[in-house]
Amino acid sequence: MKTEYDLSKMKSRKNPYASKLKRQVTIRMGFDVIEYFKDMAEETGIPYQSLINLYLRDCVATGRQPNLRWHASRNKSM
Predict the structure, then answer these.
(1) 54 in a domain, yes or no?
(2) Per residue in 30-42, pLDDT tens?
(3) Domain boundaries, position 48
(4) Per-residue confidence (pLDDT) for residue 75, from 0 to 100
(5) How many domains does the chain divide into?
(6) Could you give the CA distance from residue 30 to residue 34 in angstroms, rounded to a whole number?
(7) CA–CA separation, 20 vs 17, rounded Å?
(8) Which pLDDT does position 33 carry in this prediction?
(9) What is d(CA 28, CA 15) in angstroms, rounded to the nearest whole number?
(10) Can you give the pTM of this predicted structure?
(11) DSSP string, the chain
């Protein structure tokens, strides 16, 4: 094994799997939701965006769906 390698002559190429890894999106979330995941991120040492992704991936895997019914007490305050 050489102690040093000359990589300047190597041809670069794009990672063929990079486009399949993740996609950047813009999403609006409530302040309380962001703070919840940021607090969890401090406890676990995992970045909060990764925690959100893990949670959403778990929802997909388990088929969990949000409760879309409006609560009567919320409608009165709006």
Answers:
(1) yes
(2) 999 999 999 999 9
(3) 29-63
(4) 53
(5) 1
(6) 7
(7) 5
(8) 97
(9) 30
(10) 0.63
(11) --S----TTPPP---TTHHHH---------HHHHHHHHHHHHHH-S-HHHHHHHHHHHHHHHT-----PPPHHHHHH-
pLDDT at 50 over 90: yes
Contacts of the segment 67-71: beta carbons below 8 A, 24+ positions apart: none
Q: How confident is the model at residue 3 (pLDDT cuts 50, 70, 90)?
A: confident
Residue 41 CB neighbour total at 10 angstroms: 16
Domain assignment of residue 37, yes or no: yes
What six digits make up the tokens of 54?
């893990």
Tokens of 24: 């950047």
Q: Give CA–CA dist 26/75, Å, rounded.
A: 27
